[in-house]
Design goal:
heterodimer, A: 338 residues, alpha/beta, Rossmann fold, Alpha-Beta Plaits, 2 domains, 7-stranded mixed beta sheet, 15 strands, B: alpha/beta, 6-stranded mixed beta sheet, 14 strands, elongated
């Protein structure tokens, strides 16, 4: 895991690094959308780019697929994007051929059938007439739309449209898949299906598919936890990255769950404890982040205080931290004046 | 004694042949924080618009603070606060001017009240800042300020935390609970499964239907058919995503598993209540997958949603 300072140095490209971005900058007027971003994603990885709206996630993806140009930077600094070894500035066409991109709002032709839509994308990608049909059937089979080839795209459910969008992004066998908030606001049932496809894609290495690198942006913490690696983005930079398990280890033995009555009294008493760093109110329970090494002490002291105040404890126990706990503990809190 | 602030009976709204909200019935009492959870397009905003008296129900009825949503919409709108998904703020006005504008709409002219609201939402220092210069988190607080300036007893918050970072989101929820301490009741929509856990009760919406509404812990025991298990692949030699799918497949075909799914970097299985970790492990061993760690798990609202949705 890495916590970034101002700059991170990189080791040379190894064979299976499919996305390598070094010191990316992109401004729109005064706004620095991407501000010195470094990113490496290897084949077989699913890298989650997590961050709020405006953190620079979409701009990063657009830079990587060469839909946007990098800002020029000072002569003594380097800035580059390599996709599957190709340089995004000098070998743009080769780079685009390596990338499948599913934007947040993708368009399908609603008055064309599923197969016609995929054929369109296949032909745009330069597939020959001999090649497109078997490939289209294969990719539609992969996303589970093969029974619906003749259905109009306009008559598909939201989840099926999503899968058709994914199939369109994959039709030319890209090695790098960029997904921009693919499941924001999507039904959890569809979300499960979609993630199984992504994991299968990243992990399958056979005669046809070399392993794929997936970069997915998401505002959901629980979704980020599905990735093999997660990077948290804020103000155009990565603040921290690591595997979900490694990130969670940072707060091992620091989180307590408290249930009892009355909840607001429990909350106030928890806030008042000198070794409690953060209090998270849930509808029917409270999570406390305790200072490193003080969990048992807090458990004991808080129990006494609550009982002394006439409160009632039904449960007070250590629980595993969530990714969200980790990020909150790491970030400075400019908006937490309440 | 609990006082009923919302009472909806068979509330329904159709647009052409599309049923956006389909015979919804629920009640909400003073002092509650109720979450209204569902994916985009499940009918959350349409429900709120009917409760605000902005949209006439096709069928059914509802009262808010004792007023009928069709015949007494004016009385409702004077007495509730509403924060819409797209915060309606004037970007070229300052924080103070935005608040004064909304206060004026409600006939609230006391400078002391404006100062009080700014204090409450933590924007006192930023009164003179133009909204266009503020980050999203501060705008969100201001939007909440404009919704509470006339001291409503009931707040409708429609996806108030979409697209903000976790720190801002948590600070915002602290604010909601501070208002609840002062006697406010809140109905909050969200499509974040984990966010709904902050609410005292949660209603789960899908395709216009309210599938269930109860306390998160009650939903977890009542809606789920048995026990929840986390299955980790720590001990499995070939790590990586593909082994997850192999294990998932083994779980899905296991006769004692009701539902299996991916959760972050591990798997989750729901089994009948009489299945033990040992039974589960035996089945997986027989399927040729060894070295898994199987722990009893705390179910999430996503588990509840999936159980209700696929029932």
């Amino acid at each position: 895991m890495k916590v970034f300072g101002n700059f991170t140095t990189f080791t040379p490209i190894s064979m299976d690094i499919l996305i390598e971005a070094l010191n990316l900058h992109k401004s729109f007027g005064e706004t620095r959308a991407v501000d010195g971003l470094n990113l490496r994603v290897a084949a077989g990885e699913i890298y989650g780019l997590v961050g709020p709206d405006g953190a620079g996630k979409t701009t990063t993806l657009r830079l990587l697929c060469a839909a946007l140009q990098l800002d020029r930077i000072k002569d003594d600094e380097q800035s580059s994007i390599r996709i599957s070894g190709y340089d995004a500035v000098r070998q743009t066409e080769l780079v685009r051929a390596q990338i499948g991109y599913l934007p947040q709002r993708f368009s399908l032709y609603e008055d064309l059938t599923v197969l016609e839509n995929i054929r369109f994308f296949a032909e745009v990608r330069g597939m020959s007439s001999a090649d497109w049909r078997p490939r289209c059937m294969e990719i539609l089979g992969f996303v589970g739309l093969d029974p619906f080839v003749d259905r109009l795209a306009g008559h598909l459910s939201g989840g099926m449209k999503q899968k058709l969008g994914l199939a369109a992004a994959l039709v030319h066998r890209p090695r790098v898949l960029l997904l921009d908030e693919p499941t924001t606001g999507v039904d959890p049932v569809t979300r499960q299906d979609f993630w199984q496809l992504i994991i299968r894609l990243a992990s399958q290495a056979n005669h046809d598919h070399a392993e794929v690198a997936v970069l997915v942006s998401t505002p959901y913490m629980d979704e980020a936890a599905r990735c093999t690696r997660v990077g948290f983005m804020r103000a155009g930079r990565l603040l921290i990255e690591g595997s979900p398990a490694d990130l969670r280890l940072r707060l091992k033995d620091q989180i307590l769950e408290l249930r009892g009555q009355p909840l607001d009294m429990l909350r106030h008493l928890a806030h008042a404890d000198q070794d409690v760093e953060d209090v998270q109110m849930f509808g029917d329970r409270i999570h406390l982040r305790t200072r490193l090494g003080s969990r048992d002490l807090v458990e004991e002291r808080l129990t006494q205080r609550i009982l002394a105040e006439g409160g009632e404890i039904t449960l007070l126990r250590p629980v595993a931290p969530q990714l969200e706990d980790v990020f909150i503990s790491l970030l400075d809190q400019p908006n937490s004046s309440s | 004694m609990s006082i009923e602030v919302i009472h909806a009976t068979n509330l329904t709204r159709r647009f052409g042949d599309f049923t956006a909200v389909d015979h919804i019935s629920f009640t909400m009492n003073a002092g509650e924080v109720v979450g209204y959870l569902g994916p985009n397009g499940s009918g959350k905003t349409t429900t709120i618009r009917m409760l605000l008296g902005l949209l006439i129900p096709t069928e059914g009825e509802a009262s808010v603070l004792g007023y009928d949503v069709v015949r007494q919409a004016e009385q409702i709108r004077e007495r509730v606060g509403y924060m819409s998904q797209k915060f309606a703020l004037y970007h070229d006005l300052t924080v103070g001017e935005n608040l004064a504008f909304y206060a004026g709409v409600y006939g609230e002219r006391s400078p002391a009240r404006l100062a009080e609201v700014l204090e409450l939402v933590g924007l006192s220092q930023l009164e003179g800042e133009r909204v266009s210069d503020l980050p999203v988190g501060w705008r969100q607080r201001l939007a909440l300020g404009t919704a509470i300036v006339h001291r409503p007893k009931l707040l409708f918050l429609d996806e108030p935390t979409s697209g903000v970072d976790p720190t801002t989101r948590r600070a915002f929820w602290d604010l909601i609970y501070a208002l609840v301490d002062e006697g406010v009741t809140a109905l909050v929509t969200t499509h974040y499964m984990d966010e709904a856990e902050y609410c005292g009760r949660v209603g789960i919406m899908r395709d216009g239907k309210l599938l269930a509404m109860d306390a998160p812990s009650t939903l977890k025991t009542s809606a789920l058919p048995g026990l929840t298990w986390d299955v980790f692949l720590d001990g499995v030699s070939s790590t990586g995503a593909s082994s997850l799918l192999v294990a998932l497949n083994a779980l899905e075909t296991c006769p004692c598993v009701l539902r299996a799914g991916l959760v972050s970097d591990h798997l989750r299985a729901i089994t009948p209540a009489d299945v033990s970790a040992e039974t589960l492990r035996q089945h997986l061993d027989e399927a040729g997958i060894e070295g898994l760690r199987i722990d009893p798990a705390e179910p999430t609202l996503e588990d509840v949603f999936l159980a209700l949705a696929t029932r």
